[in-house]
Amino acid sequence: MFFIQGQNLTAQKRSSQKFYVRRPKTTAGKPALEYRQRPKGKVSADDYRDYILGFIFYKYLSERQYIYANDLLETEEVKDYLQLTDPEMPDAIKEESLQHLGYFLKPEELFESMTAKGNASTETDSNYILEDLKAVLNHIEQSTMGTDSEEDFNDLFSDIDLSSSKIGRTPKARNEVVVQILKPEQNRLQVA
Fold first, then answer.
1. Cα separation of 60 and 48, whole Å?
2. What is the mean pLDDT of the chain?
3. Residue 149: helix, strand or coil by DSSP?
4. Cα–Cα distance measured from residue 113 to residue 144, given in angstroms and rounded to the nearest whole number
5. Is the pLDDT of residue 49 over 90?
6. Res. 21: pLDDT tops 60
7. N-term to C-term CA, the chain
8. Chain CA centroid to CA 19, Å
9. CA-wise closest residue to 69 among 109, 19, 18
10. CA 54 to CA 91: how far, in whole Å?
11. Where are the beta strands (DSSP E) in 2-147?
């Protein structure tokens, strides 16, 4: 179950093996799901909703991977998945994650890593994340190939088109919109 700014969202799987998000009913004329300020530009509310819901689900999957990997690392020297330096350890975690979670994310593919890169100081580091983010979303789907969960993850993020002119005319403008959407203080998500 997702919680966004105190509102419950429930992820459900229907017969088509796709995940659907059901919003609770509104109360006293207020929307059940309140988005903070949309990024500046000409992003329509419908497009913004599609992107934010896709990114919320990416964050949910990312946090599940992080928690599960840290549980596996309890008996190891390095206990934080983001701090792994042993090149063989992610392979063992990948195998366990595919069996238990049905997908796999590398430490550098986690939501937290993407937002850190997106929020990097543009004077010293690049904050361009569109290609990396596209690769991560594709990798989530590809990591399930040949597993029981392959059908569940097929075209999971097909609604997120990071090259769409709907979110910006230039790659730089699109990147700014995506970075704005991913800002941690803007999209508080708690996994229950």
1. 18
2. 78
3. coil
4. 21
5. no
6. no
7. 6
8. 14
9. 109
10. 27
11. 2-4, 7-13, 19-22
**74 pLDDT above the threshold of 90:** yes
- The torsion angle over the Cα atoms of residues 128, 59, 5 and 9, rounded to 10 degrees, is 140
Reported as a single tens digit per residue, the pLDDT across 123-170 is 667 888 999 999 999 999 999 988 888 998 988 898 899 998 888 889
With beta carbons less than 8 A apart as the criterion, state whether 97 and 115 touch: no
CA 45 to chain centre: 19
Structure tokens at 3: 């919680």
Q: How far is CA 64 from the centre of its chain?
A: 11
Q: Check residue 43 and report its DSSP letter.
A: -
> What domains are defined for the chain?
2-191 (1.20.1260.30)
Give the integer Cα–Cα distance in Å for 128 and 175: 6
Distance CA 164, CA 108 (A): 25
Q: Angle CA(91)–CA(161)–CA(186) in degrees, nearest 5?
A: 80
pLDDT value, residue 8:
44
Q: Do you know the residue count of the chain? A: 192
